[in-house]
Design a protein that fits this description.
Length: 576
Amino acid sequence: MEKAAGSPSVGGSYPQKNAEILSSQYGINLFLAGLLLTFAWAVHAVGISKSHLLSYLITLMLIQLLWMLWYRCRSCTQRRLIRDKDTHAGARWLKCGITLFAVITLILDSFKIGYYIDFSNCLSPTEGIFPVTHAMHTILQVYFLWCHAKDIIQSFKTLERFGVIHSVFTNLLLWTNGVLTESKHQLNEHKERLITLGFGNITIVLDDHAPQCNCTTTTLCSIFSQGIYYLYPFNIEYHILASTMLYVLWKNIGRKVEHHQQHKTPFKFHGITIGMIFGLIVLTSTIAVVVVYLIQIGRSKIKSELALTMFYLHAIFVLALMCTAGIVALLIYRLEDRSLDNSKNPARKLDAELLVGTAAGSWLLSWGSILAIICAQAHPKYTWYNLPYSVLVIIEKYIQNLFIIESIHREQEKVNDDIKTLRIVTISRGSTLSLTPSYKEIYNGGAARDSGEVPCLLKGSICARENGGGGGAKEETSQENSSVMHSASDFSLYSGNSVTNNKRRVLKNIAAFLFLCNLSLWIPPAFGCRPEYDNGLEEIVFGFEPWIIVVNLAMPFSIFYRMHSAASLFEVNCKT
């Protein structure tokens, strides 16, 4: 009988589970087809040109545009309906971040349009249509995410699953296309620089996709062609952020949520001065190192070796500081006794999985470098700095992942209800005292509540009304006795709160420092400062082509890890 009673609800979940499986398989096949097209273009496969790849991407973007317009129109017609929202998804700071990346992506699209106009005589029309379509796609998608990132879809669920997963994998393919285009440009520059480091035994063949005609205005063509590659890192981050936000929307389809009050966690600069100062010092020094590195690398063998040595020493120092900060934060967590929030949360689960998954990219590169140093027969002086650098990269991500994942799973401290009650009662009594309660009042109120009595301040107010003027003397005597009895406890409570506030302040400073450090470590690989390419030792041990394939596969994940860590640490800072 129990099984029969439970069968309808179980049976009702089967169609939605099937829809989830079918839509995910549709998205994977969509992605694999695009991935093979991208690979075929990259290796100059016979019969496959860039126009075929761009036509496929344009088609996917147009389908997503139609779905987003349909969803938006349907939402407008059902505006009066009360909808469930996932308060953890689509945080305001995340929307602001993706908007910033989207604005820079629109600048990139305008550069591509200008580049097409200058080379229009020998470029396919799809290369002009693609940036226009992409710009429209970017504008509407950012607007869609601002309006609907928190939605929990409960109608047309099967259709919406296909629409959302289509959007997820469209963005992943656009991310892949951006990564490949930017990597090919970096690889060409790397091949040209290798000879200056003395690796003449490596065959240098440039992978050239440049137009086979002259530019109409040489100066503009140079600006557009160079500017495009400096803007690609922002375009890459935009698409991966969009795909993660859309994935959370997909996971929330048909989800049942518990309605509870969500505490707002605004970002405040108060109390994080030390962390911000040290973080800004790291950020400034990193920018200086990247500028010097890009200027010196490839000029001559001596200058290239000095640039690599400078990079490794700076990175070792920064990573050592980050490891120390992370260990201190974890030790503070061990001293605290706070439970973890294990409730179902797709956004938080995705954050943790992305941290560990994308960290594997840099771990792969680090272990490759360690193995190359051990196995190489000749060791230039600068390569020895690569060993502590690679070891610290592995350790730092271990520690930082532990800190972030534990931070986002820790239950947020609840606002003390006694403070609110005391403020209200103080006003109702017409007192001229400060609206901020003392620790004594909070303690007394909490103790009274635990023993089943009315808090002292409320009790005094009620007694004053019941007993009139005579009650005032009793109330005064009671308060004096209470202050004497609890004076030692007050001092203990004050000390406890002081220690807690100090711990919280240290954690906020650590989170702010690590946030800026991760932004700093995102800059070098994103803008072409990649010693994994330039030190040359790994190419000798593993072979040029195999190592370049490993770097091109792992580097995008390593770059994304830093940006995602920075976003997670920003959230940690708000919660702490």
